[in-house]
Amino acid sequence: MKRLAILLALALPLAAAATDYTVQPASSTLGFSNTFQGESFDGKFGRWTAAISYDAANLASSKFDVEVDLASVKTGDSDRDSALPGSDFFDVAKFPKAHFVTTGFRQVGGKVIADGTLTLHGISKPVSLEVTFKPQADGATLDVAGTVKRLDFGVGTGDYADTSVIGGDVKVTAHLQLAAK
């Protein structure tokens, strides 16, 4: 009996361990959408890193840690692309990176929500993202979606605080192709 208890004690940490994944950058995207003067636009970040550890059966062992190089932002509009890294928006000279790290995961009905802290523009606030994880033979796909209130992070304040001109709610999305480590 004592032997069985020792075996179970050794096996439990293994059962609770999430799988670590490597992001496949060529087939992964980190993007956002917003509005400018009532017209929708999409953007993406060309440089970012993500440490992903995930177990759909044991969310308590899962974690995300994502760092974004804000200077790598592209929207397809040269005026907007040159303005976003500047001091009126991301201010990459002072705040070159955004950082999101999970604080926990929860199941809400059939959805998984990743709760975490986003640090952007020198301000840290809670952000929640909806997670869709699909295992595959050689890894998985991970899709996340959520909304960030740009003014809560001091992005586009002053002359750009009018949310009827630049939308206040920024939709954030990611599609990650993952390979198990």
TrEMBL record:
Pfam families given in the database record: YceI (PF04264)
Signal peptide (from-to): 1-18
Entry keyword annotation includes Signal: yes
Top-rank taxon: Bacteria
Every Lipid/polyisoprenoid-binding YceI-like domain range: 20-179
SUPFAM superfamilies in the record: YceI-like
UniProt KW keywords: Signal
Family matches, as PANTHER family: PROTEIN YCEI
Protein's recorded name: YceI family protein
Source lineage: Bacteria, Pseudomonadati, Pseudomonadota, Gammaproteobacteria, Lysobacterales
